[in-house]
Amino acid sequence: MSGSPSRSYPIRLQIDYQEQHSRLTTFFRFLLVIPHQIILSVLGIVMSVLVSVAWIVILITGRHPQGIHSIISQILRWNTRVSGYMYLLTDEYPPFNGDE
């Protein structure tokens, strides 16, 4: 696989170490993410359909559709924030969207 070493990737993840976590939210963390997990499960099905559509479009046109790309990346950002909260990487409750 060839690639340019100077090419930067559009994904950045920065996690700061926290000495202490909120004990109350840590205790209820798995309950607090249930609404996110329900919505993300449905969006996972939608995302699999969109990936299939994008695959066909890429085969035909040779280009990835911008709209599908932005929807998939927004869902993945949201899922990453929820996972980070659930696995105690942050105490910040994730918003119900994939915005930055």
- The percentage helix is 55-70%
What is the first-to-last residue Cα distance?
31 Å
Q: Uncertain runs with pLDDT below 50, 5 residues or more?
A: none
- Report the biggest beta sheet as strand number plus sense, adding barrel if it closes: none
Topology, number of strands: 0
The 3D shape can be described as elongated
Nearest-integer average pLDDT: 84
* Structural class designation: mainly alpha
Rg result: 17 Å
Portion of residues in beta strands equals under 5%
Taken in chain order, the helices and strands follow as HHHH
Count of separate DSSP helical elements: 4
Describe the protein's architecture and organization.
With 100 residues, the protein is mainly α. Helices cover 58% and strands 0% of the residues. It contains four helices and no strands. α3 packs antiparallel against α4. The longest helix is centred in the middle third of the chain and has 28 residues. 5% of the residues are buried. The model has no long low-confidence stretch (mean pLDDT 84).
